[in-house]
Amino acid sequence: MSYKFFENKTCEYYPCHKAERINCLFCFCPLYSLSCGGNYKIIDGSNGGKIKDCSGCLLPHTDGGYEYVVGRLKGDNENDRKTSDPERGQGA
């Protein structure tokens, strides 16, 4: 087993995305508050504010996702650290 990938098929929420293999390492995406580059939508939250809906994103859950997430967290893109508004992201 690699430290970069594991699949938790016993999780009550599995599968949480539509994919053949799901990397559960980043069950909650650490890029949520950043301009992540993933396939997300901006929707209305229950409190009336805007939130990211990442249910259509497989970026952190696929092969190469670990390297992508770690690269973003290390600041490979300087603008990522400055983005706290989900509407500034690159959602679909």
Give a quick rundown of the structure:
With 92 residues, the chain is mostly loops. The chain has one helix at residues 65-73, and strands at 41-44, 50-53.
Q: Low-confidence stretches at least 5 residues in length (pLDDT < 50)?
A: 79-92
Radius of gyration: 14 Å
Any idea how many domains?
Answer: 1
Number of helices: 1
Mean pLDDT: 79
Q: Approximately how much helix is present in the residues? A: under 10%
Can you tag this structure with a few keywords?
single chain; 92 residues; little secondary structure; two-stranded antiparallel sheet; 1 helix; 9% strand; globular; disordered C terminus
Describe the structure.
By secondary structure, the chain is mostly loops. The protein has one domain (1-92). Helix content is 10%, strand content 9%. It is built from 1 helix and 2 strands; from the N terminus they run ββα. A two-stranded antiparallel ribbon has the order 1-2. A hairpin with a 5-residue loop joins β1 and β2 (50-53). The longest helix is centred in the C-terminal third of the chain and has 9 residues, at 65-73. It is globular. The model is unreliable at 79-92 (pLDDT under 50).
